[in-house]
Design brief:
It is a single chain. With 162 residues, this protein is an alpha+beta fold. The chain has one domain: Beta Barrel (L,D-transpeptidase catalytic domain-like), CATH 2.40.440. It is 22% helix and 26% strand. Strand 2 and strand 3 form a beta hairpin. It is globular, with a radius of gyration of 17 Å. The N terminus is likely disordered.
Length: 162
């Protein structure tokens, strides 16, 4: 019983000290995300107004559009944020709607799986902004991911450019 009491008190202290993964955002709605793979910069917009920008790291083979599972590429084109994972292995994550119908059709023509589970997520390693290591996801710092998770809603457009 005493251990449970101490655990509850510690958890309360952590939350009150601002250590929660979840923060509140009361600013303008994020209506669009732009990801520029070549410059490694992601922008969050409210209509045409820039709200935030972030450096990021990509998959281990970042050049070109994702074609198949395991290729280490990040898809290119218009997608949507379609899910959230508060229990991600990479701190927090928001899902990208890859593969779409066109991606599945292209993969089928090649006789391969298009893969899936592409996310914007935090990291379990030191972030340098220049090391590409994911399996095709977009990785930002955990502090940035906490902010993105609070700002971006499911259904938000995400345009990923070469």
């Amino acid at each position: 019983m005493r251990v449970l009491l101490w655990a509850a008190m510690f958890a309360g202290l952590m939350i009150s000290a601002g250590c929660s993964r979840f923060i509140e955002y009361n600013g303008p709605e994020v209506t669009r995300i732009e990801v520029h793979k070549s410059s490694r910069v992601m922008y969050l917009f409210n209509d045409e107004n820039l709200l935030e920008s972030y450096a990021f790291e990509l998959g281990f083979a970042p050049e070109g559009h994702k074609v198949q599972e395991g290729d280490g590429r990040t898809p290119e084109g218009r997608y949507f944020i379609d899910r959230r994972n508060p229990n991600s292995n990479y701190y927090l994550s928001i899902g990208i709607s890859y593969p779409n119908a066109q991606d599945r059709e292209a993969a089928a023509e090649l006789g391969v799986s298009p893969g899936g589970d592409i996310f914007v997520h935090g990291t379990t390693r030191p972030f340098r902004g220049r090391d590409d290591w994911t399996a095709g996801c977009i990785a930002v710092t955990n502090a940035e991911m906490r902010q993105i998770y609070a700002m971006v809603r499911d259904g938000t457009i995400i345009d990923i450019y070469p």
